[in-house]
Design brief:
Shape: globular
Order of helices and strands: HHHHHHHHHH
Distance between the termini: 33 Å
Structural class: mainly alpha
Low-confidence stretches: 7-17
Number of helices: 10
Number of strands: 0
Length: about 210
């Protein structure tokens, strides 16, 4: 199997779960207060501090997207549980969930459905991607690419590709989206060549149609 980090320099690997999430998640009031603080202009920073601030804010952006994703998954699970308690058939328990997510995130209903799909995929099938996302190594777009490029694999093979993130989160962090897709395809192809080939042909057909 092709390793996602096979061409990385030695010593760059790190453990995705090294920085554990806070013991207590911030409340809505605390998040709103911090948002107001971010609106304040920084004073007295030299150039090096500005770059450090940019890097820290980027990690925060990624972790914030992950926190939203986690909240979406929690909401979906809660809604399904409540619907089950009312006797709603399993096939109908997600009805209206994506619309509520889309409204809260100021997005279209289609995008809300995509958010639900990504959140549940990360929660149930891609634990290493989820961990890297939550600790700021990935943003939502890269997490989506990982979910998309591994979606054609069986659960076992998908887990094998995902497991590589445990050893190489910083490698994935540095890759541009195009190179990340190529690396994922090379990692997935030996596991199920037929499925990967079929997904590529479908993607190419979709591009031609659009």
């Amino acid at each position: 199997m092709r390793d996602l980090g096979s061409d990385a320099a030695a010593g760059t690997a790190a453990t995705a779960g090294a920085a554990a999430p806070p013991a207590a998640a911030p409340s809505v009031e605390e998040i709103e207060a911090f948002t107001r603080r971010l609106a304040a202009d920084p004073v007295g920073l030299d150039d090096a501090e500005m770059i450090d601030r940019l890097a820290a804010l980027e990690t925060l952006r990624c972790a914030t997207e992950a926190a939203q994703c986690e909240t979406v998954a929690d909401f979906v699970i809660s809604q399904r549980r409540a619907a089950a308690g009312r006797g709603v058939p399993a096939a109908r328990r997600d009805r209206g969930v994506a619309s509520q997510v889309a409204l809260a995130m100021r997005q279209s209903p289609t995008r809300g459905q995509q958010q639900v799909g990504l959140a549940m995929t990360l929660r149930t099938e891609l634990p290493q991607t989820r961990a890297a996302f939550r600790t700021g190594h990935l943003d939502g777009y890269k997490a989506t690419l990982i979910a998309r490029e591994t979606g054609c694999l069986t659960a076992v093979d998908r887990a094998r590709v995902d497991e590589q993130l445990r050893a190489h989160p910083t490698v994935v962090e540095r890759l541009c989206p195009r190179r990340l897709v190529g690396r994922l395809q090379r990692a997935a192809a030996p596991l199920d060549p037929a499925a990967v080939g079929k997904r590529r042909r479908r993607a190419e057909a979709d591009r031609h149609v659009s």
